[in-house]
């Protein structure tokens, strides 16, 4: 059954999606020239299932990701793809019903299934996380100052006035005006954008090596989103920490990230540098996502919607999970789950079309 | 471009897209000459709010909508964009007569629309409908989809009983819901399917005006595309006038024939999407457009960052409402409230310093 | 905030007024005190004389107004049985009641709240189901059944404690135990659901992500939030300190407020009944007022206008 495989790089519909750089990039792309150092975080074959008492529902089916110091990794996908679950599993915030399998190497040390005692110093101290809805992510009955000082005391060992001073300095660093007064404010008195800045400041208190931002701007207005993204980029430049940005918004990812991983139904389906991904998306799902996005420039054309819906975790197709919706579907796709392959090691796709 | 046809079936193919836009962005003249389906003039809506700051709660006024005027024509879409606090949702409710105006007039087909629940108001419900952001909260949790789509027909006693079910089934198929889903309950459907059901219910009475308040924000990107295409097709078929409210400018550009940008209850700029987004004239629009993220722009794009938070409609600034955050504000802006003026290319801008647009994208 | 509290104060007075009026009317309609206090065999003239001396022959509205006028002046009436001022009767029994209800309340809090918190932290586990089963049992079992069960176990079978009466610590133990068990059952269930709700909130996830230990998260972040709804329940329990033990006092022959109420109602001793109701209602309403004030302290969202403007 050797089906004739169509050539996989199909540029016919894609000309209008190439980036047209009218201005030289503001930052030189020196990251590619940096000597290869060991990655800060490596996720290997991460599988996560939830135990509902009767059986296990698998949600992640073997995720491989890597993060280097000083780079921003974008994880993009729609609801249910497992992008948040992946990073919550790294932080072990999934609760007692989660069963985690695989390796999560933080500077070489495997922290997957580390007992709670070992995890607490890592949370906030080495990996910090910022969440989606800032206004409900802060404790409503504690002042901003109390929550900041708590983080500072926990990770820096400061007390009293020194802790307060550090908290104010952190709030300043995230550009909260009048930081000293804001220490006495309650979360509900601040806007969404302010609360998100507070969350980011709290995350920085532990001077983490990695900052994971899970949809940090989804609940915010566009102009505030711009401020927050700008802040995150500046902080990353200054501290050199690794950053992970989780989003369903391709535009946000394109703006901020160096490398991107696209996830679908609990697997990584494409992984590449941001430029490579957006100029030459290989996986049909990535192509479909980009075709479904309305433009801001260029002619207005009818959007190409991806037909069908994401499979439920309990009803996953055998073989490639995207096959039922894919326009390049082959017989092999239904039988065998594709590996991440690619002509170049830094642009891999989980699609059998690449295997030509 | 073929394999990705949405379930809806009939596709006008490229006819729809070219009817929307020609290269120069000149809208169809035929529709514009006809009298507007809906005419709103000088809409104002104020709320009394008790602010509990400090010990004593004094009553203050919240001005949600502050002198808004627009026309909606049959078969064309007007987009309202803005951030939280700008008054777009309140404007939508005023348009439909769901809230009474504090001042101003709305005329639908020449007849006034007011907020009072009279028989005339109920009759108007046949002609104007609304689609909301969260379909789950507007669908009855205890009725299967088919019953919910038949219900408007029952309310207005349209046709014979037997025919109503038939019509409802046809409508559900038209919006792309397969037969298997007709007897399902809302919680058994996905977000996109629910929104299609809401559309079916809204359009079963063949209204002439459809108001959409963030109808796709809660949906995934690939589903958004399906629903956008569906909306455009349905608008073409039923010759609907549409008021489309969104904070997502990319979607607005895709769907709308005309766009109005709102800030703190006022329209600050109005024009066709092509001009507005390519060359925004008002400083707020410029900031808004530059803040949008798309894969095409990536990192080579210089964003305008506004200071501070989105505004609070309780304490309106003096003069131009945008001046506290405006990068080009002058002393005059603090004192005078700019009115909407016409620019040579047909656009309207409310800014004392409105530049002829030179902003690069 | 002053607006908030003054509104509450107004409601306190209104409630008292309504309770007393209601009691007034019901008592007058439910039987003639004269016939009950003086036996039915007594000669009609004696009964008439009794009525006259107590003002029971006046029209109801006159009695009503007269009652409130007296109230304003601090005159709570006199017991029909023995002529002692009604309020004195009421007040002298309070210590006895408090002697069992206060320890019971403390015990309830000490048992119920930790049980509820523990059940919430391990929710849907076997321990949780076990604790909640007990809670439902304690909650649905009428207090006299529970009391009699305890008497059966501790007095009759084991012989450790007396079956009733007043005087020593041993006499007080069973009443206290009965009260606290049923109260703890309710408190446990309530605390559990408040905690479960709080633990599902995003800010708990943030606190954990910060690197706080579970203990720190529960005590510094979860409990202060779960306390807010629980305080309502505790407030009600405090309000019931005086009259909440009617059945228990009767079963154990404990000479407290509850027993006084029962005997006074049985004998239609109007002034005493009304005096008790006044004290109990005032107690309940004041407890609620304190709870409302506590809310404002515990929940900062109530202090400055929390509602954000809608677009």
Strand order of the largest sheet of chain A: 6-7-8-3-9-10-12-11
User: What's the alpha carbon Rg of chain A, rounded to whole Å?
Assistant: 21 Å
From the alpha carbons, calculate the radius of gyration of chain B and give it in angstroms.
Answer: 21 Å
Overall outline of chain B: globular
User: Percent of residues of chain A in helical segments?
Assistant: 25-40%
Largest sheet of chain A: 8 strands, mixed
Quaternary structure state of the chains depicted: heterotrimer
How much of the sequence lies in strands of chain B comes to 15-25%
Summarize the structure.
The complex is a heterotrimer of chains A (356), B (361) and C (311). Chain A has 11 helices and 12 strands.
Summary keywords:
heterotrimer; A: 356 residues; alpha/beta; eight-stranded mixed β-sheet; 29% helix; disordered N terminus; B: 361 residues; Rossmann fold; 12 strands; 32% helix; disordered C terminus
Question: Could you please describe the fold and organization of this structure?
Answer:
The complex is a heterotrimer of chains A (356), B (361) and C (311). By secondary structure, chain A is α/β, with parallel strands linked by helices. Helices cover 29% and strands 21% of the residues of chain A. Chain A is built from eleven helices and twelve strands. Chain A starts with 40 loop residues before the first strand and ends in a 7-residue tail after the last strand. In chain B, 32% of the residues lie in helices and 20% in strands. In chain B, a hairpin with a 6-residue loop joins strand 1 and strand 2. Chain B is globular, with a radius of gyration of 21 Å. The two termini of chain B are 28 Å apart. Chain C contains 13 helices and no strands. The longest helix of chain C is centred in the first third of the chain and has 36 residues. In chain C, 34% of the residues are buried. At the B-C interface, strand 1 and helix 3 of B face loops of C.
List the helices and strands and how they pair.
The complex is a heterotrimer of chains A (356), B (361) and C (311).
Chain A: E1 41-51, E2 56-67, E3 72-76, H1 83-91, E4 98-106, E5 109-110, H2 116-122, E6 127-130, H3 144-156, H4 160-173, H5 179-182, H6 192-204, E7 210-214, H7 222-239, E8 242-247, H8 250-256, E9 259-264, E10 267-273, H9 274-279, H10 284-291, H11 331-335, E11 341-344, E12 347-349
Parallel strand pairs in A: 3-8, 3-9, 6-7, 7-8
Antiparallel strand pairs in A: 1-2, 1-4, 4-5, 9-10, 10-12, 11-12
Helix pairs in contact in A: 3-4, 3-6, 4-6, 6-7
Chain B: H1 14-20, H2 29-33, E1 38-51, E2 58-72, E3 77-81, H3 88-96, E4 103-108, E5 111-112, H4 119-124, E6 128-131, H5 135-138, H6 145-155, H7 161-174, H8 191-203, E7 209-213, H9 221-238, E8 241-246, H10 249-255, E9 258-263, E10 266-271, H11 273-278, H12 283-291, H13 331-335, E11 341-342, E12 348-349
Parallel strand pairs in B: 3-8, 3-9, 6-7, 7-8
Antiparallel strand pairs in B: 1-2, 1-4, 4-5, 9-10, 10-12, 11-12
Helix pairs in contact in B: 6-7, 6-8, 7-8, 8-9
Chain C: H1 2-29, H2 33-37, H3 44-53, H4 60-72, H5 86-121, H6 126-140, H7 143-157, H8 169-199, H9 202-209, H10 214-239, H11 246-251, H12 257-266, H13 270-298
Helix pairs in contact in C: 1-13, 5-6, 5-8, 5-13, 6-8, 7-8, 8-10, 9-10, 10-13, 12-13
